TrEMBL record:
<keyword id="KW-0418">Kinase</keyword>
<dbReference type="GO" id="GO:0004674">
    <property type="term" value="F:protein serine/threonine kinase activity"/>
</dbReference>
<dbReference type="GO" id="GO:0005886">
    <property type="term" value="C:plasma membrane"/>
</dbReference>
<dbReference type="InterPro" id="IPR003591">
    <property type="entry name" value="Leu-rich_rpt_typical-subtyp"/>
</dbReference>
<keyword id="KW-0677">Repeat</keyword>
<dbReference type="GO" id="GO:0005524">
    <property type="term" value="F:ATP binding"/>
</dbReference>
<keyword id="KW-0067">ATP-binding</keyword>
<keyword id="KW-1003">Cell membrane</keyword>
<keyword id="KW-0812">Transmembrane</keyword>
<feature type="domain" description="Protein kinase">
    <location>
        <begin position="192"/>
        <end position="519"/>
    </location>
</feature>
<dbReference type="InterPro" id="IPR001611">
    <property type="entry name" value="Leu-rich_rpt"/>
</dbReference>
<keyword id="KW-0732">Signal</keyword>
<protein>
    <recommendedName>
        <fullName>non-specific serine/threonine protein kinase</fullName>
        <ecNumber>2.7.11.1</ecNumber>
    </recommendedName>
</protein>
<keyword id="KW-0723">Serine/threonine-protein kinase</keyword>
<keyword id="KW-0472">Membrane</keyword>
<keyword id="KW-0675">Receptor</keyword>
<keyword id="KW-0597">Phosphoprotein</keyword>
């Protein structure tokens, strides 16, 4: 009878339904706004075969009678969440030793969690969240070694977290957030090696350092310790939590630097360490992580703001409240970083940034060797303007995307232009061709072809030579596959050089090395 619009006081004479084993009245409009709304519970005492009682998401009010403890010892599931039940949770509920699932969330229960819940040895799921429970978490809950899920967040619980919670050897998630819990986090909590979904201790009054044992939670996906009074350094052992997807440490008193071990968190997509006392520079390894959201605001970080990875998307990160930062994209409004003098041999030689590589300024000599035909924008701007950061420079389609965001001209921008040139040569398609739009670029076109069939994107003239070479090689017993590999390698170089983020582009020295390998392979076929 679930998911209907039945309303009013529930007056069914359940006492006559002695053999009933399943009652589901959830998602209705029952309730009379009277204190004895749940009086019918007493009549269920005769239903000795009852296994499931589902009364969740109705409008039941009043108190839960102590007679609930007289229900069948075979009862496995009680669902009463999403009502307006008030008063204490009866201690007699501890008589229902067959219970496996007990969700009572989103009610108006007051008083403390009955310690008799510790008698429910078969209980695997307990949800008392979003109520108004107070007092301490009873130590007896630690007796429930079968627990898989424990949710008691958004209450008024106080006192320390019982160390007995470390007895839950099968626990998948633990929600204790949004209470008034105090004291240090028991080390036993970090012995819950089965935790794989979430450990949420946020919005409490926990203090002290974060135990190094936190690194033992190898399977954990989400760790939320936000808005407590935790202090000291962030333990480097956190880098051992290799399955972490989200890490929230904001609103604490952590100090020191971001641990270098965080570079091991390969799957981390969200990191919030804002509103702490952290210092030092922003680690470059953050550029190479899979972060989709990063909040470093209101700390004491200094030095240059990276520009790759998550930092390339200004809406994906925040660095507010760090007055000693510099650099980054112009839109951040930070001062330029002071250049450190470097008198090594290589640094004394000026690096020439062309800034406008395109087909029209690439010339071929009699031996078909390519030469840059002019000095591009470097000639126009001169050495004193190589770091100019105003306007979009270069030719549309060939200019690096970061220049459109006000980034300084760098050799990485020339690498991007080179990559586009390589792809244009191999495909015969200009980056501004009509087939390309905001959803499909020359770079993306080539990237997709690499996953399928490379020869399908080659320029018609290359394909013609390719087919002729294959025929000749078959006649001579040559390795045709080597040509395919060389073509694929060349396109991969073009794709790698034209990556959107500057930090993900191939280093030009490696480009030269790989092109030399391609040439050597072709010469020796």
């Amino acid at each position: 009878m679930e998911e209907n619009k039945f309303s009013g006081k529930l007056t069914v004479e359940f006492a006559k339904l002695k053999d009933i084993y399943y009652i589901n009245l959830s998602n209705n409009l029952f309730g009379s706004e009277e204190a004895d709304d749940m009086k019918f519970i007493s009549s269920l005492g005769n239903c000795t075969n009852l296994l499931t009682l589902a009364l969740d998401n109705c409008k039941f009010q009043g108190v839960l009678p102590g007679s609930i403890g007289n229900l069948s010892i075979h009862l496995r599931e009680i669902y009463m969440g999403g009502n307006q039940l008030r008063g204490n949770i009866p201690s007699s509920i501890g008589n229902l030793v067959g219970l496996v699932l007990l969700p009572l969330e989103s009610n108006q229960f007051t008083g403390s969690i009955p310690s008799t819940i510790g008698n429910l040895q078969n209980l695997q799921f307990l949800d008392l969240s979003r109520c108004q429970l107070s007092g301490t978490i009873p130590d007896a809950i630690g007796n429930l070694s079968s627990f898989i899920n424990l949710h008691v967040f958004s209450n008024k619980l106080e006192g320390e977290i019982p160390s007995s919670l470390g007895n839950f050897r099968n626990l998948l998630d633990l929600y204790l957030g949004d209470n008034k819990l105090t004291g240090k986090i028991p080390r036993q909590i970090f012995q819950l090696l089965s935790l794989s979904i979430i450990l949420d201790l946020s919005h409490n009054k926990l203090f002290g350092s974060l135990p190094t044992e936190v690194g033992d939670l190898k399977m954990l996906s989400l760790l939320n310790l936000a808005y407590n009074d935790l202090s000291g350094n962030i333990p480097s052992s956190l880098g051992g939590c290799g399955n972490l997807v989200g890490l929230s440490l904001e609103g604490n008193l952590f100090q020191g630097m971001i641990p270098s071990s965080f570079s091991s968190l390969k799957g981390l997509s969200e990191l919030d360490i804002s509103h702490n006392n952290l210092s030092g520079t922003i680690p470059r390894f953050l550029e190479n992580m899979k972060l989709e959201y990063l909040n470093l605001s209101y700390n004491d970080f200094e030095g240059e703001v990276p520009m790759g990875g998550v930092f390339f998307n200004e809406s994906a990160f925040s660095i507010l409240g760090n007055s000693r930062l510099c650099g980054g994209f112009v839109k951040l409004g930070l001062p330029k970083c002071k250049k450190k003098k470097n008198y090594t041999k290589n640094e004394c030689l000026p690096t020439i940034v062309h800034g406008d590589l395109k087909p029209s300024n690439i010339l071929l000599d009699d031996d078909m060797v390519a030469h840059v035909g002019d000095f591009g924008l470097a000639r126009v701007l001169g050495t004193s303007y190589l770091n100019n950061s105003t306007g979009i420079r270069g030719t549309v389609g060939y200019v690096a995307p970061e220049y459109g965001m006000g980034s300084e001209m760098t050799s990485s921008g020339d690498v991007y232009s080179f990559g586009i040139l390589v792809l244009e040569v191999m495909t015969g398609k200009e980056p501004t061709s009509d087939i390309f739009n905001e959803h499909l670029s020359l770079h993306k076109y080539a990237s997709m072809a690499l996953q399928d069939h490379v020869t399908g994107l080659l320029d018609v003239n290359i394909i013609k030579d390719y087919e002729e070479d294959k025929i000749a090689m078959r006649d001579q017993g040559g390795n045709v596959m080597k040509i395919d590999e060389c073509l694929a390698s060349t396109i991969k170089i073009g794709v790698s050089c034209s990556m959107h983020s500057p930090t993900q582009r191939m280093d030009i020295k490696r480009v030269v090395h790989e092109l030399q390998q391609v040439l050597s392979t072709l010469e020796n076929i």
